[in-house]
Amino acid sequence: MADLLGYEGKTVVLVGAATGMGDAATKQLVELGAEVYALDIAPIEAPVKQGIEVDLRDRGSIDAALAKLPEHVDSLFHCAGLPGAPFSNLDTMLVNFVGQRHFTESLLPRIPNGGAIAIITSVAGIGWSKNRESVDALVATQDFEGGQAWCEANPDAANGYLFSKQCIIAYTKRKSADLVAREIRINCLSPAPTDTPMLSSFHDQVSREFIEEHFLSPLGRNATPEEMGDPLIFLNSTAARFISGQNLIVDFGYVAATEMGLRPALL
After folding, report:
1. Which of 82, 116, 144, 242 has minimal Cβ neighbours within 10 Å of its Cβ?
2. Residue 120 forms beta bridges with which residues?
3. Of 15, 31, 25, 116, which is closest to residue 69 (Cα–Cα)?
4. Which residues pair with 186 in a beta bridge?
5. CA dist., res. 88 & res. 84, Å (int)
6. What is the pLDDT of residues 209-231, one digit of tens each?
7. How far apart are CA 137 and CA 81, in angstroms?
8. For residue 175, which of 94, 245, 255 has the smallest C-alpha distance?
9. Which residue, among 235, 248, 262, 243, has the nearest Cα to 28 in the 3D structure?
């Protein structure tokens, strides 16, 4: 039987590997035979090729981590993220978008033609097109310093989790066009509420009852980390070799229900 995922012997970099969806994806990639270079600010428990500490709020930390990675990388996964409070809006923007983008742009020269990038965003970002002016303005900045400066100068727009996730979706779609010439694919994945350590932060911000009333999947339960990690792995796999520029919504029909007026669309 053909290996439709095609990770055996491939060199993979995964940022945000310590917990939640990133941990689930990391462990699955190791099982699939990939050599995984795993990065996080926290210790990594999975049996990876190399674990590397990185703080996406700090360009120096990102550049130091990049220096420890191999010269050839077949695919890149971004799973790191902050939920907003108790972290500042600026820290959230740096981790979720500005630092993540700097990491991606810096690693791209090492990704060969046919490589792939997959980024975790959120169903919270699905309203990105309604906020196009601000989203486009941040995505158009050229580097880490430019992105940070824009966020600091526009605190009302760069207001944390939702905006950072909107920017990931727009960046993915714009970057997919830029990478066509090299046949490098880039996609993102929007999870529904998932049982990860981050979920409790959302409960603290707006209450568990509010999240479950308005954003819980039609199944009536949260997703597991594996139910998000596996589709993320698919996006960078051989099976998805003609898919690029897409935001894969993984929510068991939640967004579909809002689009058809069966649930309130709050985003």
Report:
1. 242
2. 189
3. 15
4. 117
5. 6
6. 877 777 788 888 989 999 999 99
7. 21
8. 245
9. 235
Identify the CA nearest to 96 among candidates 173, 196, 165, 197: 165
End-to-end CA distance of the chain: 43
| 82, two tokens | 């902050």
Residue 229 CA to residue 108 CA, distance in Å, equals 22
Q: Where are the domains of the chain?
A: 11-259
**Assigned fold of 11-259:** Rossmann fold (3.40.50)
pLDDT of amino acid 240: 98
List pLDDT tens digits, range 158-210: 999 999 999 999 999 999 999 999 999 999 999 988 988 777 777 677 677 87
Q: Find the helix or strand (DSSP H, E) in which 63 lies.
A: helix 59-66
Query: What is the enclosing helix (H) or strand (E) of 211?
Result: helix 208-214
If you search the block for the tokens 């439709």, which residue do you land on? 4
CA distance 184 to 21: 23
Query: In 3D, which of 129, 157, 124, 94 has the Cα closest to residue 267?
Result: 124
Residue 245 region by backbone torsions, left for phi larger than 0, else alpha for psi between -120 and 50, else beta? left
